[in-house]
Give the backbone structure.
Amino acid sequence: MFVLSIALILSILSGIIMYHNIQRINQELTRRLENALELAESTLPQAVWQFNEEYADNFVSALFSEESIAYAQVRAQVPGIQKDLVTRTRPFFKGKPFSFFSESSRFITGTRYIFYNGEKSGTIRIAVSRKGIYKKLALDTLPPIVLMSGVIIVIAFYYIRLKRSEKKYRNLHDNAIEAIFQSTPDGRILSANLSMAEILGFATPE
């Protein structure tokens, strides 16, 4: 029962640690996404207005130096004209549309309008992959769980040893030839072994 209780406590603590780490890593990925979108808002307006594909491509290439970025698209949108200046995905997701990422729980996505001189000139859409979350989760969660497991195993080990010693002592106490008893200062017997019970004329210590 004691070991089961320890295992339950370990499971609960592990769950709490994992939940906390998942929330923290999600917040970090969201922050990276927001930073990329804000950078696009401040960097791309003129290039998008001028349909500068080379500049947009260089910007997206820089974004992809961050390994969590899975998809990025820069689109120019001026009255009467819409054109994708650059669309890039990781090789594994080649050909996947933005909807694939926005509808999947494996990604965090964001879209921002790009304005030039107060007029909307385009949009940027970015998807950040949660794939790295599992590796980071394992690295962040495993050490404390291993430490707790070690502590709990040690506690369980000494608890079992204590119970065995207690059982061994109880056997010696109960089966001793000598009369052994425990009493209060006023002489009231609290416990006694079989030999003491027989001396007092009882069949059992109870």
Summary: The two ends are 26 Å apart (CA to CA). The first helix runs from residue 2 to 43. The mean pLDDT is 80. Strands lie at 69-78, 81-89, 107-116, 119-129, 181-183, 189-192.
